[in-house]
Amino acid sequence: MRCNVVAFLILVLSAGAALAQTGPAAPTAPTSGATLASVEAGKQKAHAAAIADCEAMWDRATHMTRKEWSRTCRRVQLRLQQLELR
Q1: How far from chain centre, in Å, is Cα 30?
Q2: Reduced to 3 states, what is the DSSP secondary structure of residue 76?
Q3: Does residue 29 form part of some domain?
Q4: Mean pLDDT, contiguous 10-residue spans, the chain (86 residues)
Q5: Which domain holds residue 65?
């Protein structure tokens, strides 16, 4: 009898832990063209904001002119954007 009670408790306690385990949620792909366009617009805004933040860090004491700094910011952000696409 005691063995049956112990086995029952083990099953009950382990079942709760097994039911609580879930896998990572699968990413959902946008289904409509409007959703895809809004995602793309959001990426473009983030890209432009990153360039603006980089350009704002320029200082006269750097070894680059403001124009060179801006060109470098754009080049780096373009490379980062291409890296995300792969």
Answers
A1: 16
A2: helix
A3: no
A4: 65 60 63 78 90 94 94 94 76
A5: 44-86
